[in-house]
Every structure is written in C-alpha cells, then in structure tokens.
Amino acid sequence: MPETATSEFWRDIKPITRVFKPDALAEVYLANAPTEDERYYVPFSETVSSRPLWISPAQNRWCDILMAKGAGLVNRHYHPHEVFAYTISGKWGYLEHDWTATAGDFVYETPGEAHTLVAYEHKDPMKVFFIVTGPLIWLDENGNSAGHFDVHDYIGLCRAHYDKVGLGAEAVRKLFR
Fold this sequence. Notes:
Layout: E1 42-43, E2 49-56, E3 61-68, E4 72-79, E5 83-89, E6 91-94, E7 100-102, E8 106-109, E9 113-119, E10 126-133, E11 136-139, E12 145-149, H1 151-164
Antiparallel strand pairs: 1-2, 2-3, 3-10, 4-9, 4-11, 5-8, 5-10, 6-7, 6-9, 11-12
C-alpha cells in the first residue's frame, strides 16, 4: 500500500482490486536502485561494476546500473540489438563518438553499433541505467569478434558475486521476469 494521500486531488480513488492477470508475475520494486552498497554491484571489468535490476532469461535482456568510481573501461563490444541508457551521475562516453554523457543525458544505441565504453574521472561516480537486449560481442583491437557475453553469462556472474558477498546466489532469481 502506498503512503496515504492527504491533499492530492485523487485521494478518494480506490485502488484496483484485481491487479494481476492470472499468469502475470509481480513487479520488481527495488528501493534506491543506484545504491551506495557495493555488494550489489557485480564486477563487470576491472574498473566497472553492474547492479542487476531486472533480468529476462527468455528474452536475453537485462536492466542494470553500470558504475565506475573513477576512470573505467568496458571492453570493446558490438551490439546486434538496441540498447537504451540514461545517465544518473558521473561522466562517460564511447571512444568512437563525439559526445560525452553526464547526469540527465539519454543515449539510444542502434542495432549494429560497435564501441568502447569509457568512464571519465569525475567528482561523482559514473552511474548509468542501461536496458540491454541480446549479447555483447567482445571485439579485439581490430574490431574482430573475440567472444560474447549474454544474459546467461550475466546471470552466472551475478550469482557468483552475490554468493561471494553474502547476498546468496539465489537472490538473483528474484529479478527474473
């Protein structure tokens, strides 16, 4: 139940009694998604971590908050599917583009894009909300395929990290939809 309305014009409206269809799953609600509690951030590279927020194994999709507390790097990669990003704090960009994102900036990555994600030194950590569909294809320095990272790799990484920091590997399953 949300907090009680006081002066809002809608205060007398009653909530819907049948919220979910019979086969629907409950929503995922995470308070303080870009938390400072580093246990929730799974190391993605030596300098960048990811907090999983929502994971769909069946759709090969996930939402996360990518974080770097200083200069950071996510390996060169290619996206065969679209990606959405909203910058919460810090400063980041792609070596291949002429823009640098800061708090409040939105980025849509088209399918077929390759890039090198970097985080800049900034007074605030880089925190970016991403919606990722499909695999990331890792690229070598010449732009050739050097492996992949998909939702199942992500789940395995998250489970191992959550188990290691005491949150429990099965905590990741609560994010599955």
